[in-house]
Each structure stands twice: as C-alpha cells, then as structure tokens.
Amino acid sequence: MEKQIVRVGLMGFGTVGTGVVRIVQAHQEDLQKQTGLGIEITKILVQNAEKSRSISEMDPLLTTNADEILNDADIDVVVEVIGGISPAREYILAALEQGKHVVTANKDLMALHGAEILAKAEEKGCDVFYEASVAGGIPILRALVEGFASDRITKMMGIVNGTTNYIMTKMSQEGADYADVLKEAQALGYAEADPTSDVEGFDAARKMAILATLGFRVPMKLEDVDVKGISSVSKEDIAYGKRLGYEVKLLGLARRDGEAIEVSVQPTMVAKHHPLASVNGVFNAVYVHGEAVGETMFYGPGAGELPTATAVVSDLVTVVKNMKLGVNGRGVVAPYKEKVLKADSEKLSKYFLRMVVADKRGVLAKVTQLLAEKNISLEQVVQQPYNNGSQAEIILVTHQAAKSDMDSVLAYMEGMEIVEEIKSCYRVEGGE
Amino acid sequence: MEKQIVRVGLMGFGTVGTGVVRIVQAHQEDLQKQTGLGIEITKILVQNAEKSRSISEMDPLLTTNADEILNDADIDVVVEVIGGISPAREYILAALEQGKHVVTANKDLMALHGAEILAKAEEKGCDVFYEASVAGGIPILRALVEGFASDRITKMMGIVNGTTNYIMTKMSQEGADYADVLKEAQALGYAEADPTSDVEGFDAARKMAILATLGFRVPMKLEDVDVKGISSVSKEDIAYGKRLGYEVKLLGLARRDGEAIEVSVQPTMVAKHHPLASVNGVFNAVYVHGEAVGETMFYGPGAGELPTATAVVSDLVTVVKNMKLGVNGRGVVAPYKEKVLKADSEKLSKYFLRMVVADKRGVLAKVTQLLAEKNISLEQVVQQPYNNGSQAEIILVTHQAAKSDMDSVLAYMEGMEIVEEIKSCYRVEGGE
C-alpha cells in the first residue's frame, strides 16, 4: 500500500520549532492538497521535557533522547532547528545515514559543514533543504535552484544581515555615530549584547558562503570569504558617500568571471539608483545576475519566527512532494566544481577613497599621478579644506581597478609625507 | 505501465514558442531529473507551415489545424503562446474540456477571461498556469501561490510595465519631457508605434487584475481597476516630487482592508527610500505585503524572449510534477470569494497636490482651511513665486485622506477664483 502519511521528527522546540508545529497543524488541509499526503509530527527532541510550553498538546511527543528519532524507522523526515554545530551536525549525518530526509535552518552548520552534509545526502539519495538558513523570509535558495536551473549565475550581491543593515540605515538617515546606533539597536533587541558576529561580518559571511556554494556549485569555505565589518564606518564616510551618490551597505558579494570566483563581505558604497541601496532597516535582499534572466532581486524579512518557520515548512512540503514523485535526493547537488579563487589582481572594482593630506600646492597632482602609474583612473574627485584649512581632504572615486593595485597604492600612500591619513577605502558597486 | 513521457502540444511558434522549444531541448536531462518524466513536444500549431524557421528540425511537427492538437488523446499538456483573445480562449477551453493541462503566457486573455478558464480547469481537474503573463522574468505568481500559501496577502504594489517605467526613469534622470522620451523609447523599440496600451496604463491594469484575482481569490475584472496613464505627467511634477523625497512611478496598487478591495494603476509619488522607487528602466518589480511574512519584493526583467520562455517552461515542469504526484488541478483556485469593492470614501491615501494660485495675501490660508474642513491634514507645504512672481505656486503633501474627500476638494478648488490652475494630483505611497 502506498504511504499516506509522512512522519516528521522535530529536533528543537524553541520559537522556530514552535512556529513549525503551529503552521503544520493549522494548514493540514492545504498541505494534503498540495502534496497528496498527510504530514504528522510524531516526535520532538527537547532538552527538558518538564518545561511548560505554549503548545501543551505536544507533550506526549517530547523526548530528550535523539536516538528515539534517529532510530525510529517510521520517521521519514528530520527537521533540525536546534542550531549550532554540535550535536546538530552529528544528528543530521546520522539521520541521513538512516535514509531520512533533512530540513534545517542552521546557517552556522551549513556554512561550515555544508559540503559534507550534501555529499552524505547525495550518497544516500536523501533530500537536504536549508532555505531558512539564509534570509529567512526570502525564498532565495529555492530561486537559485529552481528559477535559475536553466541559467548560469554570474553574480550575487546580498544584504543578508539585518542587524548591520539596521545600523547602517540609522547612521545614514540620522547622521548618527556607529557607537550610538549600536547601543540603540541593542536596546531594541536588533543587536545582541555581544554583537561581534553581526557587526564584524561573520554572520553575513556564513550566508554568502552558502549562497556561493549553491549558486556556483563550488565548495566555498568560510575562510574563502574576505570579511570586513562595519565597526570602522564613520558618519563622515556615509555623508560623503551620499554627496557622491552612494549609500554605504554591508554588502556580500559573490562573483564569477570565467571559472574564477571571489566572495567577500565588506562595507560598500552602493550607487543610490541601485535597488540594493534602498534596502533599509532590518530587511534583507539578494540581487542575482543570471546570464539568461539578467538582473533579479529578492527582498524581504531576513529573520523572525514566522518567516523562518514558514521557510522550514515550505522545505518540508518540497521533501514530501519529492517523496511522492520518487525524486528525493535529485535536487541535492553537492558542490562538484573545482574551486578556483581569484587572485587579488583579478578582483576588479571601483573604489571610493578618502584621505587627509597636507595643504600644499600639487598634492592632488601627486596623488592622481601615483594612481595613474598603477593604471587607476578617476571618475570623481573632490578636494576641500580640512581642519580649518590647515589640511586638505581628498575624496576619490576610481574607475575599475584591481584590488592588488589598490592595495599597493594604499600601502605606498601610507608612507608618503604629504598624506596625513587615509581615512577610508570602500568598494563601489551598482554603478555600472 | 506508468507514463514515462509527457507529450506537449505547442500553440504558437514565435519568439517565445521558439524559446520554449530550445529550452526543452537543451535541458532534457535536467527536466527528467527534476520531474522523473521525459518531456516531448509532439505537435506545434502555426499559421503557415511553409515559412522557414530557425529550428528546422521541428518541421515534421508543424500543423495549421488546432484540432490535431486538441483531439490528440496522446497530448497531455497544451502550451499556448499565440496571444490575443480569440482563438486562444477557444483553444484553451477546448483543451481543458479534453482534460489537457494548460500553460499560457497570455495576459490579455487571463485578465479578461481568467475566472472562466480557471473555473473550467477546476471542473475538469486540470492545471492552468500563466506565470509568464505577469512580469515575465519574475516568478511572482508562483510566489503568491506557494510562498504565501499559509499567509494572507493584504497589499500588492507593482511596477509591471517596462515601457512606462523606462519613460518615467528617463524623465526623472534627465529632466526630459514626456513627448521626447516617448519618441526615444519608440526609436529604441521599448515603446510601440501606437503606445496607448502601455502609456495609458491598460497593460499594467491587466496585470494588476491578474495579481489581485490570484492574491485575493476574488474575480477582479479589468473594469474594476481605476486606470490613469502617464501621458499627463510633467517634468515639473517629477522635479517637485524629487525635492520632497519622491519618485513618480506608474504604480499598480491592489489593497485589501477587511474584505474590501481596491485596485488601481496610476502615476504615483513613491517615497525615495522605498525599494520600488529605485526600480528603474524597463525593469519590473512587485512588492507584496503578507500578514505573516511582512514586506517582500520581487524584482527582475518584465519581458524578453528568454525570461518569458523560461517562465513558461517552469510552469510546464510544475504540470509534469503534478501529473506524477496525481495532484493536477489542486493548485488551481478559481476565485471563490465575493467581490467587495471599496467605495471612494474607503480608499485612503496620502496625496501630492500642485496648483497655481493668485499671488494674494491669505491664499495659502484659504486653501489649507478648505482642506481642514474635509479633515485633510498636511504633512508638507511649499509656496513659492510662479510666473515671475505674478502668481504663486503651492505644493502640498497631505496625510491620509479619503479619495472622495480629495475629489470633492479638487472639484471645489476648480471653481475658486483664487485658484488659477490645479496642475497635478498624485497618490503618495511607500512613505509610512
């Protein structure tokens, strides 16, 4: 007899887990209609079975022993919303080993051990979906896999961390200082007490590693991502950026030229007319360029209990459909291409550069001469008095230049007597 | 024996039809992998079978007789890319009558006869998909059906006509006149020789009727959409809009408050910080607000052979998957809710109003007094000399006001001696 009910083991019963239970309960009929099968959560792994919960009718399903899920032959799908690396990694690998399909919301795990997990899934013919791990409420992984199935992705740019985007937006809109806005964000619960993972770009880097691995089919590791956070962005940079037509955003960039790839997360000057420049507050957006479709962008909430739980249930629906289609595992593509990382000389970008120089005749000429020697030409130049006219400030926007050339120019400038201080240097995107 | 091959009859073999054939040919293996079934185009309806074509190997499949497709019991799916109302409507209804599934790119047909077609599909248990009919390269209908399956959509705002958005963008960026930009757009092939359908908003209205019908499950008709085109938008309006923080866009709006619905297409002042304000050139974008997910936006190419053909093939893949799942027809939801249209007194919006008045003391006081009597309060007011100071110009941005109140104020003002001319009045969106 054909299977009528798909049985799900839920690991983790915090806010996202609770949301998943609620959505599955509330939409039984819809889910049946969409998939032709019923979905039943039959066991829930928790740390403490005695704790009182908002959904008490699930109490009989609770267990503190993962093996009760992993070794239960009746369970078809494991939904992991525990988070963190261990024991989530061990549980997921064990579930796959038992031929169970997996849905996870775990970005840390997928960024660090995604290749291992996808390879195991492929070996076992199981599904692994992880939509909720990147930009919770935006179905971006699904879009990359389905929407671009017959296309070739060349570039992805993402605002994939809500905390830093909230801070950059506030700094821009209110002309406020980083430290003040961070404090406010912490008070509002948009930033954690220890904000390092967000503000230093590590969280965004995890998501970009996941996007690049999936979009380019290359096993990108977290350490392959050039990361720079926002803690050094000043309100002056933002104000000058605006004047020249840019908004500063913590931008994730994954770009492929030929087979060579670069992935980075860094504060970036984004041209105001580019749709990413208007992504404000805690919102996320991912811009994708495909050879056939051209430019697309997906915008929405990056986190939150309901959007995240909705993404998990959507993945679950896909697993169930695949079970009925008999195509589980076919959508799982472990990265199979060789990883070719760009050298710095291949990383081309426009740059925004701000420096304070001695107020002497010919300084601007010397600076531009130096750039010209490295084949860096200029798109915009502003010079103005600084520090009551005792110094001058130069702001430059370059045409495309290689990172290696830019780095060597900066290193050389640091040693020039006429250059008092290099205040900032940002990549410029979205202006082509 | 279970079916191994799904047979497709293609109706229409122009650029989109050719694109569909190419994609199906090029991605056989992928399609098989995704669906577990092969997809074969077995007949192609053309007007002239003798015409020479870029894909000559399909010549044996060509027919000029629709019945050869409609009455062929081996054909499971009909893909209609002929366009227009008749005979496309008759063909699609006949195909459904025969139990064939339908994929169409036909926005005119779906806007005018969508309810009839969906009802027939529901009756026959057949699939009808029409992703390519709205914003070609953006999977927006799929997102509405799948992504928001467990949510309630309250508002959609769309830039869904590339021609008008190109014109508005050029006017904004270059401070150019409407007539000049239209001519340029015609020369570049972005606008047709007779641009009426685009510039008067009818094309956008069709797409908004389709979006509202699907998003709200209500049988919206084209005549339910308030339509105003862009031909009266002046470069002055755009310049004043910018000054106050807005971009003028031809914006489709579909909004539900309680069960009451309004759908309109009109030039609208969109707050600059809203992501829709940065959707430039021929690009399309649809912004969707759902009660659970909050704000999302989907951005991409609105037309083009490859994006449109890709959307058609994606629909075809869904039909094939549904065939194997045995769930055809279940995703088709003919609009089942009663249509409740808002009265003008329920249509709330902020407004931008520009008028030329006599340069007399107390004129501004009279105008604001009149607005206050209708409970319309003001957010921004600018008064300045006009016509070398012989007159004055007043620009107002109101807080939320009812359309009925605004209309009666405008009618009254037309008769006031001190009001020389009401230059323009726009809805304002995206500023909350």
From TrEMBL, chains A, B:
CDD domains hit by this protein: ACT_HSDH-Hom (cd04881)
UniProt cross-references to Pfam families, sorted A to Z: ACT, Homoserine_dh, NAD_binding_3
Residues the entry annotates as binding NADPH: 107
Swiss-Prot/TrEMBL cofactor(s): a metal cation
EC top class, as a word: oxidoreductase
Reaction catalysis annotation: L-homoserine + NADP(+) = L-aspartate 4-semialdehyde + NADPH + H(+)
Binding, NADP(+): 11-18
Record-listed E.C. numbers: 1.1.1.3
One GO term (biological process): threonine biosynthetic process
ACT domain mapped to chain residues: 352-427
Key words of the record: Amino-acid biosynthesis, Metal-binding, Methionine biosynthesis, NAD, NADP, Oxidoreductase, Sodium, Threonine biosynthesis
Pathway: Amino-acid biosynthesis; L-methionine biosynthesis via de novo pathway; L-homoserine from L-aspartate: step 3/3; Amino-acid biosynthesis; L-threonine biosynthesis; L-threonine from L-aspartate: step 3/5
Entry binding sites for L-homoserine: 192
Active site residues according to the UniProt entry: 207 (proton donor)
Gene Ontology molecular function, alphabetical: homoserine dehydrogenase activity; metal ion binding; NADP binding
Similarity comment text for this entry: Belongs to the homoserine dehydrogenase family.
Name listed for the protein in its UniProt record: Homoserine dehydrogenase
Organism, scientific name: Brevibacillus composti
